[in-house]
């Protein structure tokens, strides 16, 4: 695991390189977040990411993962999405997803056995 401060510096460096016009720039960023992360940590990390990109007017979509226990995954956003807005984070879109692998009731045709 990388310490948060080091990860933040590495992310900032990567984004600076990618946003350089010589590299072709960035057309869209997809930011993946675990639904099970502590809300404060999730919001802080996302805010750091969002703040560095927002001024460049690059659209950001957020993907909320690990929603296996949600009956209706979109309910997670209905309940928690406001946390991001309260911290000034706006997204071009969002999606709530789960992995199918090993999910009860999913046919082997969809999820091949290991």
Q: In terms of topology, how is this protein built?
A:
Elements: H1 4-18, E1 29-34, H2 39-54, E2 60-65, H3 74-86, E3 93-96
Description of the molecule:
The longest helix has 16 residues, at 39-54. The model is unreliable at 109-114 (pLDDT under 50). A 3-stranded parallel β-sheet has the order 1-2-3, covered by helices on one side. The protein is globular and about 50 Å long. The protein has helices at 4-18, 39-54, 74-86; strands at 29-34, 60-65, 93-96. With 114 residues, the chain is of the alpha/beta class.
Reading the helices and strands in chain order gives HEHEHE
The low-confidence runs, each spanning 5 or more residues with pLDDT under 50, are: 109-114
Count the strands?
3
Shape: globular
Please describe the biggest sheet, giving its number of strands, its sense, and whether it closes into a barrel: 3 strands, parallel
SS-based structural class? alpha/beta
Mean pLDDT: 76
What share of the residues does DSSP label as strand, in percent? 5-15%
End-to-end gap: 27 Å
* H/I helix tally: 3
Share of helix among residues? Answer: 25-40%
Rg estimate, integer Å = 16 Å
Q: Reading side by side through the largest sheet, how are the strands ordered?
A: 1-2-3
């Amino acid at each position: 695991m990388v310490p948060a401060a080091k990860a933040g510096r590495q992310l900032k460096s990567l984004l600076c390189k990618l946003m350089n016009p010589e590299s072709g720039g960035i057309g869209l960023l997809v930011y993946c977040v675990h639904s099970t992360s502590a809300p404060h940590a999730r919001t802080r990390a996302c805010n750091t990411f969002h703040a560095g990109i927002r001024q460049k007017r690059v659209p950001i979509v957020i993907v909320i993962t690990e929603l296996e226990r949600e009956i209706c995954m979109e309910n997670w956003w209905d309940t928690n999405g406001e946390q991001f807005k309260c911290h000034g984070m706006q997204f071009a879109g969002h999606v709530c997803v789960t992995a199918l692998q090993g999910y009860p009731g999913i046919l082997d045709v969809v999820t091949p056995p290991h």
